[in-house]
């Protein structure tokens, strides 16, 4: 066996790298979902100043490259605040914030998709703003947002490949190392690409299963 | 008693209600007639607090709808039925009707559902409690809308052109129910284009024109040549409606 051979063990290495991506993806998606939805609720309550700040901040995150955000957190923050930021921490912060910004936009459009007439009906019967959110807005907004959210998550999974640039040993980074060792870029990057593909398909599949189950429970029409 | 006192409402520069006075006593059925844009719906929306008054005062019993703290009480006393039903599409018929009684009046679910089923039975929808709004016809949806308002046991029922979005057959379904409610002594403020029906069920008829209350007369006098018909605007409106 020669040093430049692509072996079965290399596949195990790649799988380990994929594990790093998946772990970061799951963690940051969860944090991003919670933060993004919390931001949308702040906006729903029309909290002055804070709502405007959140909208501005999410615009910054949505309209600048994730790679630049990653550099800012990894290289910029430590210099400014005199703290140490590990690559994994930087990746976690950046991806969580970025996911939150997009979740925020999806959640807001979900909330705004609810017809004014329903909200008025709820108000005249005396429901509080929180009761309207819980019983009228949230269930319908969730159904509305599910499709875009799944698409976002599939995309955010691919975005995790950027963390290899700041030194997190993930699937892409391991692919890079194997590439330099084996000098077989076509084989290595095909394997890497297929692994991302499989993971993305898995996320999309899980998402659509969840969506179907939700819809089977309710015969909602016109949504 | 609902008291509307010198109420004014403008949208931007456009006045929609221009000094309206109106009193509705318990047990009365009052119909509001007038052409589109005369301010009929806006008046209802002012009474249930969906629009803020530009001037004047509205009292529902002893509660001033312009006071945020009193509005909640005022809203508990009046129930609104909307032109476009405004049902919650993700909830069953039963869910639509019981939501406010459970959440606002804090009724136990069992009690709220029993009352909702009784109401549905009374409007001929006993078997549709578990249907979703989209599975119902327009007339059925509006009957659910009426049940939803009645489930709050309101003292006053506000009806905002509740048959305008329905075809004649469905309109008849809904009007039959309203006639029954009127007979049972339900207090109703009824904005409508159904002149003949208003004539049958109303104690009083009010005519709005360009935001002003032109006529407020007992039904019999309203259609009398020396009463409402003496007003050229009313005579013109009624002759047009009858032609249609």
Structure description:
The complex is a heterodimer of chains A (223) and B (244). By secondary structure, chain A is mostly helical. Chain A has one domain: Orthogonal Bundle (MetI-like fold), CATH 1.10.3720. Chain A is built from eight helices and no strands. In chain A, α1 (8-44) packs across α4, α3 (66-81) crosses α4 (87-112) and α6 (129-159) packs antiparallel against α8 (185-217). The longest helix of chain A is centred in the first third of the chain and has 37 residues, at 8-44. Chain A starts with 7 loop residues before the first helix and ends in a 6-residue tail after the last helix. Chain B has one domain (2-86, 157-243): Rossmann fold, CATH 3.40.50.300. The model of chain B has no long low-confidence stretch (mean pLDDT 92). In chain B, α5 (138-150) packs parallel to α6 (168-183). In chain B, β1 (2-11) and β2 (14-24) form a beta hairpin. Chain B starts with a strand and ends with a helix. In chain B, strands 6-7-8-3-9-10 form a six-stranded mixed β-sheet, with helices on both faces. A four-stranded antiparallel β-sheet of chain B has the order 2-1-4-5, with helices on one face. Chain B is α/β, with parallel strands linked by helices and 244 residues long. Chains A and B meet through α5 and α6 of A and α2, β6 and α3 of B.
